[in-house]
Amino acid sequence: MSTEPETEIEEESSAENLPQTSSHQQRRIEEKATRKSEREAAEKAQAESLEDEETYELKVFRYDPEIEGKEEPRFDTFVVPYHKGMTVLDALIYARDHYDSSLTFRHSCQQAICGSDALFVNGRQRLGCKTQLADLDDPVRIEPLPHQEVVKDLVVDMEHFYDQMEAVEPFFDPDETPDDELEEQRQSRENREKVKMSTRCIWCGACMSSCNIAAGDNQYLGPAAINKAYRFAMDEREGEDRKEERMRIVEQEHGVWRCQTQFSCTEVCPKDIPLTEHIQELKREAVKSNLKFW
Amino acid sequence: MYEYDVIVVGAGGAGLRAAIAAHEEGADVALVTKLHPVRSHTGAAEGGINAALREGDDWELHAYDTMKGSDYLGDAPAIDTFAKDAPKEVVQLEHWGMPFSREDDGRVSQRPFGGLSFPRTTYAGAETGHHLLHTMYEQVVKRGIDVYDEWYVLDAAVTDHEDPEDRECHGVVAYDIKSGEIDGFRARNGVILATGGTGQVYDHTTNAVANTGDGPAIAYRAGVPLEDMEMVQFHPTTLPSTGVLISEGVRGEGGILYNDDKERFMFEYGYANNDGELASRDVVSRAELTEVNEGRGIEDEYVHLDMRHLGEERIIDRLENILHLAEDFEGVDGLDEPMPVKPGQHYHMGGIECDENGHTCVDGLYAAGEAACVSLHGANRLGGNALPELLVFGARAGKHAAGGDMAAARIDTGPSARSEAGEFDSPVDPGALSGSDEDVAADGGAVADPDTVLEDAVGRERERVETLLESDGINHAEVRAEVQETMTENVNVFREEGALKRALEDLKQAREDYQDVAVADPSRTFNTDLIHTIETRNVIDVAEAITIGALAREEFRGAHWRKEHQERKDDEWIKHTMLAWNGGDPDLYYKPVVLEGDEQTYEPKERSY
User: Fold this and answer.
1) Which of B21, B38, B496, B500 is least enclosed by beta carbons within 10 angstroms?
2) What's the domain count of chain A?
3) Do A70 and A107 sit in the same domain of this protein?
4) Looking at the predicted structure, is the pLDDT value of residue A16 above 80?
5) Is the pLDDT of residue A14 over 70?
């Protein structure tokens, strides 16, 4: 920060208790104008310097149902300066903070654990934060997750995904727990290992978006929800009665039998969860336990 | 208008635990949260959950370790309560199905952690926070607790009595991000602020972009003092471009830190001749920055963390996750080249002043988790103590707010706990700008009807949002960048008087500039431009509070290092720095640290490991 504004601050503080005068407002307007011209100069300089450095071109899907000119979906182009390690999310943040503050996308942790920023990047479901620009062809085409309703720009409506997750009764529900509040249930290392990958799900929705079956059957539970059911059905702490109930849920008309083992969910899962295998295992379990076929 | 007994703001670990506890007391509860619960930053915690579960360990040892780790700035009633409640909270999580790592006998595993006298850290792989967050959200779903996700809380509805201890909180005002609707949430019993960390005050942090200190800023402006705000923890190994955390495990396994001259500086320059890379977090962070400041950093920014000599087999066996992080977030292959690392803001020990039951000095207003300051962590938080804090104090706040039967708190809060006035030599007047709308005139509590208090607050927030949407001005991102730059430059690991004063000047300028912000996106649909703009005001308030605390505390304690004051001064400084908004004219004062515990009085000792 330059020293100039500091001088102004001192003047400001000494005048702190005086009523606001029009000169104060005048000064603010002048400051605003100065800032505007400085900003424009900086942008111009940046655009010029961009010519010399490595850049990436983003083609970003834009849509806003209530803004004139955005009701019809379109693609906007942003050219961003590249630095080593830059991710798709970094590039989007740069474009938003430097070119267009209305560019809208979800993101939070920036480390692939919150699951907010699953996007359709160059034709594939990926987490923006863990996708290196260097691994992509330029220009980079960024769209919202397919097969979900677009709220605005890259933000999709996740309600349907959440509904499916909740439909499998996604909570631990043992037949009984120890009476003593300090006594743990026992779980073998093998059993913990068995459910381990299934517990890594971050609810990003990439799998559901990649699934052709889910696209054609809106009631299909989908890979993430079935994986959640797997996580509890295979947990030895829950007990046999609960497991039977869980099997009934995944065996329903829009459950595991819909899966055609195309492996698209497994391919796009950013946490490497063997989703298709889990679905197949539940199918085998269903046959084994001789439950009634729908 | 929505109406509930208890409103919980934020749905990370503390918020979820509070909601479950309140629900179990029979209260009608709602979670109001700007992120869907599973997006919360609790999910990023890696290490574990400390609890004295086994023979040979007991709560008193855990309490002692925590007090020592706090550098004697934690309050004994908070620490004792924490250490006593932690075991049953951990087993409760186990009963809720948390996929803990296990021993051969099927019981929950525990491992050693820094600063602990017993291996009492329970964990679930290196994703403990993720599992804790999802396990608790599952229990919220099971109970059918109402969740308003992607609703951003703008402010609390608090009466305007002169003395904050006479004030009452009747609810919150929230903005539905998807629709743009602004509405009131009336809380018949209480509001619990569980909004998490404040890392966005700095430009390099392990925190999420959502961690903007909304709760502390809201409580502060409502009259609740902020406590020990200068106490901020910096983690020594974060990736330079994103702030992603590289676990202490790398150094634990034998990873080595090098400067640009390929020197093993921790030893070569005598920063830690015994422990080297494994010295405590604050020591290593200071060493790295000294290297950079003296021209031995790489690209004048970072140092190298090298683990190649450990061999591919061992790295893949024990540190596989680190390879993914370095590859995905920095484009570096840790098997082939050293990883760039630098210190990053990690955790805020300070926060909203509250007692062991989560209650603040404002009736009906509670705080829990990282947003709160009970004070448990004092001047330095031990690894593995943040997650049990969420459980213990989230549960207590929820139960108390729901009217549960609990012992009276021993920690005093509010202006009446003041023991001494504080002073700091500021070059500018911090706090509200005169003539701005930040300083709403107190009406002495003339409006007391709860519904009216809430409706008035809703009206104010609607007006504020309209103004931001309609006016023309600068982008908030410029102002936020100003704050982050000055905080990182001047109120970081190293703190000196001149720099702290420059930061206060810069923050004053940021406040001035914020007067000119406007939201460029006119849409009512998912307007993140608007949300970030409102957050930025909170970022400014929190940044200023941190800086004032740092300027006032003239000693070196825990995470707080002062160039001019290189010693812990127990005679003078075993006291909390308290900052009250005071209608926009911040009032600094002190209150004593409580060292008298349930079983013993803690005697300050030198903190050496």
Assistant:
1) B496
2) 2
3) yes
4) no
5) no
- The answer on A284 and A203 residing in a single domain is yes
A229 within domain boundaries: yes
Does residue A149 share a domain with residue A202?
no
**Residue B521 structure tokens:** 């996106």
Question: H or E element: which one contains B573?
Answer: helix B570-573
B207 secondary structure, DSSP code: S
Peptide bond into B216 cis (omega under 30): no
Tell me, yes or no, if B281 is annotated catalytic.
yes
CA dist., res. A179 & res. B298, Å (int): 57
3-state SS assignment for residue A8 = helix
Q: Residue A71 domain-assigned?
A: yes
Let me know whether A141 and A169 are in one domain. Answer: no
**Beta strands of A115-271 (E only): which ranges?**
118-121, 124-127, 140-143, 150-152, 155-156
In a domain, A3, yes or no: no
pLDDT band at B606 (very low <50, low <70, confident <90, very high): confident
Which amino acid belongs to residue B432? Answer: A
pLDDT at A10 over 60: no
**Tokens 């812990």 found at:** B568
What is the per-residue pLDDT across A57-85, written as a single tens digit (0 to 9) for each?
Answer: 999 999 999 998 899 999 999 999 998 88
Band (pLDDT 50/70/90 cuts) for residue B459 is very high
Checking DSSP bridges between strand B49-50 and strand B121-122, what pairing results, if any? antiparallel
Q: pTM for this one?
A: 0.93
A274 and A203 in a common domain: yes
Asked, for residue A10, whether it belongs to a domain, the answer is no
* β-bridge mates for residue A127, sequence order: A118
Rounded to two decimals, the ipTM of the complex is: 0.94
Residues A162 and A265 in one domain: yes
* Count of alpha carbons within 13 angstroms of residue B517, beta-carbon side: 27
Q: CB within 8 A of A288, min separation 6: which ones?
A: none
Q: Which domains occur in chain B, in start order?
A: 2-47+122-231+347-410 (3.50.50.60), 235-344 (3.90.700.10), 431-571 (1.20.58.100)
> What is the per-residue pLDDT across B350-381, written as a single tens digit (0 to 9) for each?
999 999 999 999 999 999 999 999 999 999 99
Say how far apart CA B160 and CA B174 lie, in whole Å.
20
Residue B146, pLDDT > 90, answer yes
Catalytic site residue from B120, B186, B281, B568: B281
The parent domain of residue A254 ranges over: 158-175+189-288
Q: Backbone phi, then psi, for A25, in 5-degree steps?
A: -65, -40
CB contact under 8 A, B512 and A12: yes
Is pLDDT of B337 > 60? Answer: yes
Interval B300-322 mean pLDDT: 90
Q: Do B428 and A97 touch (CB under 8 A)?
A: no
In the block, tokens 């509250």 appear at B354
**pLDDT for res A39:** 59
Look at the block and give the residue holding tokens 């602004």: B182
Q: Which of B46, B8, B1 is nearest to B29 (CA)?
A: B8
Across the interface, of B38, B508, B525, the residue whose CB is closest to A203 is: B38
- B43, B108, B331 ranked by CB distance to A132: nearest: B331
Instruction: Identify whether residues A108 and A146 lie together within a single domain.
Output: yes
Task: Please give the average per-residue pLDDT across A230-235, as a whole number.
Answer: 98
Higher pLDDT, B315 or A24: B315
Strands A150-152, A140-143: pairing is unpaired
Q: Among the listed ranges A33-42, A263-272, B36-45, B346-355, which one has the minimum average pLDDT value?
A: A33-42
Q: Is the CB of A9 less than 8 angstroms away from the CB of B519?
A: no
CA-based radius of gyration for chain B = 23
Among B245, B346, B521, B530, most A C-beta atoms within 10 A, so best to mutate, is B521
CB B263 within 8 A of CB B276: no
- What is the pLDDT, as a whole number, of residue A218? 95
Cα–Cα distances in angstroms (integers) from residue B192 to residues B143, B147, B394, in the given order: 19, 14, 9
CA triplet A189, A194, A199: central angle to 5 degrees?
Answer: 105
In the three-class reduction of DSSP (H, G, I as helix; E, B as strand; rest coil), residue B169 is classed as: strand
